[in-house]
Design a protein that fits this description.
Blueprint: H1 2-14, H2 23-36, H3 46-60, H4 62-78, H5 86-97, H6 108-142, H7 165-194, H8 197-213, H9 223-234, H10 240-244, E1 258-265, E2 268-275, E3 280-287, E4 290-297, H11 298-312, H12 373-378, H13 385-390, H14 406-409, E5 422-423, H15 429-439, E6 445-454, H16 461-465, H17 472-479, E7 483-486, E8 508-513, E9 517-523, H18 534-545, E10 549-554, E11 572-576, H19 586-597
Parallel strand pairs: 6-9, 6-10, 10-11
Antiparallel strand pairs: 1-2, 1-5, 2-3, 3-4, 7-8, 8-9
Helix pairs in contact: 1-3, 2-3, 2-4, 3-4, 3-5, 4-6, 5-7, 6-7, 6-8, 7-9
């Protein structure tokens, strides 16, 4: 067993000689690591080493990983019950999502494997939680109360008993279990958001049914499942490019005096901010999984939607409806009918259809759930297990709203058979305060990371903080970390950097984001720092010193000491030392700068 463990470790070293390894040998190397995942009993450390090795192979042997990844995923499904591998396995699956080139050729079956891995962990976590709850309940009921029990000598002035080693281990196990649960939902989020709308429609049933069958509560929908369901419904028709274009915070546009109204529908709130003396309006759609905002010419938008509805029903428009701009919250958006027209459901081919409002609805097929199933889930109700096992298809229905007003105030655009939106009281401070808090909460995970340059011979904190320039190799390194962002134009997460336009933290920074996360880098060489201005050095240290992760580009010629930039938060340091000296030409650098600033 130890020999096998060492052998897998040696295979990682072989990857660095990829230039001398033929294609079939690369495939054999990856296949061997994939087979090593199954050694959960004979050599328990081997699967963990193989997972880490496959993570290295994503970068070193990219082509071989693309070819062998489907077979590796099949092995992952077989070993999900190995508790000691849960964190490593889910982090590996999550890291695949960060490299889109690995799964561009995935088909429906490959995505089903990935979702199955995540859902299996959710089910495993909740089943274990039920067993622990049942065990603790039985233990508490069987243990009689000992009224004559003497006071524990460990109860000092605090009156509390210090945690025993077993209790500390239990707390660690609970924290690890929660981390695994969060990672499982993250895998579902990132892969679903990366799918095309057509594939999302095909995967919808299996994802929702899997989440419901693994729900912890037997009567109500778990909160995390509600958020995941909302994510699916809000993004079923969006491409990954559309999602990346969304802002991670909601910013209210300056329209001058506005009329503002809010409507709530299940877990969503729609806000319309219309100019009192103009035609522009901002429509904000908030839900538990995120928010979107768009600016429209309200009159033109009403006309466009009216024409679209008329074309659907094949009736030529006779006259345009009145503009919804009005001081009256009811007459502004028409009469909200309690009846909802039902569009055509997704058939076996899972294509999204629509039908004109007012036409008779189709009776649901025998193997489908009732038409209001999605609405019940959004209310927090859990469908019965018998219904789920008998009818594993959800009646997703899309089409025009029953009236033009609902086209604007539906929180779930295009989706039918939901509860009618209800208008919230206008000018109600509690509502406004809650929405302000929501708008200031980022829609994706946000992180801030420091980047420091250490020049030749530099060893002290002050020397490093005063750096305003770096070597060509350093600038080439920054090029691959993200896009240049103009601080004065940033309205979203900025990691505390000055975005007022005064440039107290410099004019530019680097940023990176994907479908579920965003990073802003505190780049030391992009922040001002002069020898005669101590406040600039202090400000730079305040930004960089409060980051948990430091990336240090070390060209000092000696080892970098961990406490060179002391901080209470400096938990992780990534030291990068250039060895080959290959850097792009100044022309390449200028071309990169111009292309990045134009984005």
């Amino acid at each position: 067993n130890r020999t096998a463990t060492y052998t897998y470790g040696l295979q990682v070293s072989c990857m660095h000689y990829k230039g001398w390894i033929k294609r079939d040998q690369q495939d054999l190397l990856i296949s061997t690591l994939g087979d090593g995942l199954m050694m959960t009993s004979g050599a328990p450390e081997a699967p963990q080493i193989c997972l880490h090795a496959l993570g290295v192979a994503m970068l070193e042997l990219h082509g071989a990983m693309v070819r062998m990844l489907p077979s590796i995923l099949q092995n992952l499904v077989r070993i999900y019950s190995a508790a000691q591998l849960s964190v490593h396995l889910l982090e590996f699956v999550s890291s695949i999502s960060r490299n889109q080139g690995l799964y561009t050729n995935f088909r429906k079956g490959d995505y089903q494997v990935l979702f199955a891995v995540a859902i299996n962990y959710i089910r495993f976590h909740n089943n274990q939680r039920r067993r622990e709850t049942s065990l603790s309940t039985n233990t508490a009921g069987a243990r009689p109360a000992d009224v004559g029990e003497k006071s524990d000598p460990r109860r000092q002035s605090t009156g509390a008993i210090p945690a025993s080693p077993s209790e500390k281990q239990l707390l660690n196990d609970v924290a690890l279990s929660q981390y695994v649960l969060v990672m499982a939902y993250q895998v579902i989020d990132v892969y679903f958001l990366s799918l095309t709308p057509a594939l999302k429609a095909e995967m919808f049933d299996s994802i929702i049914v899997g989440l419901l069958q693994s729900n912890y509560s037997r009567s109500n929908l778990d909160e995390v499942n509600e958020v995941c369901l909302d994510m699916v419904l809000q993004n079923h028709s969006r491409s990954s490019e559309d999602i990346l274009g969304l802002s991670d915070v909601t910013v209210q546009e300056d329209f001058g005096p506005v009329v503002e109204r809010h409507w709530i529908q299940h877990n969503g709130i729609v806000t319309i901010r219309a100019q009192k003396e103009g035609l522009m309006a901002q429509i904000i759609e908030r839900s538990c999984s995120g928010a979107t905002s768009r600016i429209v010419d309200l009159t033109a938008e009403v006309s466009r939607k009216y024409v679209e509805r008329a074309e659907r029903t094949e009736r030529p428009p006779t006259s345009l409806p009145a503009s919804p701009l009005s001081d009256s919250p009811v007459s502004a958006f028409g009469s909200l009918s309690q009846s909802a027209s039902r569009g055509r459901s997704i058939g076996r081919n899972r294509r999204l259809h629509s039908m004109a409002p007012g036409l008779p609805s189709l009776h649901h097929e025998p193997d489908m759930l009732p038409h209001d199933s999605i609405a019940r889930l959004l209310r927090g109700e859990l469908l019965s297990q018998s219904d789920l096992s008998r009818a594993p298809r959800f009646p997703m229905r899309f089409g025009a709203a029953p009236c033009l007003a609902l086209e604007f105030i539906n929180a779930y655009q295009g989706l039918q058979n939901l509860d009618v939106p209800v208008m919230l009281p206008p000018n109600f401070e509690a509502v406004a305060r809650s929405l302000r808090i929501f708008d200031n909460t980022a829609m994706v995970d946000t992180h801030k990371v420091s980047v420091a340059y250490v020049g030749p011979g530099q060893t002290t904190e002050r020397e490093i903080l005063l750096n305003q320039q770096g070597s060509p190799a350093y600038w080439n390194f920054l090029r691959g970390m993200g896009h240049i962002r103009r601080l004065g134009q940033m309205k979203d997460f900025s990691a505390g950097l000055d975005t007022s336009g005064q440039d107290s933290d410099g004019r530019y920074t680097l940023g990176w984001r994907d479908l579920i996360a965003k990073l802003i880098f505190h780049v030391g060489t992009l922040m001002p720092a002069r020898e005669d201005k101590q406040e600039q050095i202090v400000r730079k240290k305040a930004h960089m010193g409060n980051d948990f992760v430091h990336i240090v580009f070390n060209e000092s010629g000696r080892d970098y000491e961990f406490d060179t930039i002391p901080s209470q938060f400096n938990f992780v340091q990534i030291i990068v030392t250039p060895v080959d000296g290959q850097v792009p030409t100044p022309e390449d650098e200028a071309l990169w700068l111009r292309s990045d600033l134009s984005k």
